[in-house]
Structures are given as C-alpha cells and as structure tokens.
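User: Small ask, check this?
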Amino acid sequence: MIKIYHNPRCSKSRQALNYLEEKGQDFEVIKYLNDVPTEEELTNVLVKLNMKPLDIIRKGEQIYKEKFKGKKFTDEEWITIMIENPKLIERPIIVRDNKAVIARPLDNLAYLLGDKK
C-alpha cells in the first residue's frame, strides 16, 4: 500500500496525489498537519527516505527562521521539533513498501512507481 503524506494547500502535494490517481494506484492519504506522525512513524519514513531529519526540514518556513535557524539539534530533537511543528516537514512524502521519496520534483514519484528508469 502506498501512503502519501499530503498537504492539500500545497500545489506539489496535489500534483503527486493527482499522479497517483491517474496511475490507478491504491493509496492512503495522510493529512500530516492534522494527523501528525508519531516519533516511530517519522523515524521509519526517514529510514525509507534514507535521509536525516534535517534533510526534510522546510527551511523557508517562518517558524524555522524564527525558532530554529542556525541552532544545532540532535536527530532525535529534530524529530520532536517536526512532530510539534508538522508544517516543517517537507512534502509530499510518498511511501511504498520499504522505500520513500519526496515528490519534488514529480519525477521522484515516477521513479518510485517504476514509471521511469
């Protein structure tokens, strides 16, 4: 089953959702701003992305600039910060089996689904 961590207000996230629909994929939509992932879920997503927490922080967000920019945190602290401030989580994240991608650009999703080589 495919999961999409989705923000309906984000055009890139909507594009990824539309792509999944057009391809006839079965998927679960997780509106992560309301249904915030747990520490375990976010950690598992990071493993599947093969990324560190700081790699998926939205550094252009105002809250990042005001509270976190230039500060050093451990990976565990960044995970807690993202859970407390889910707006900081990059989007959209698509998870399929043991792999995940940030669908920016949309080609990343195409590679995950095997539509591109």
Remarks:
- The domain at 2-113 is CATH 3.40.30.10 (Glutaredoxin).
- Residues 11-22 form the longest helix (12 residues).
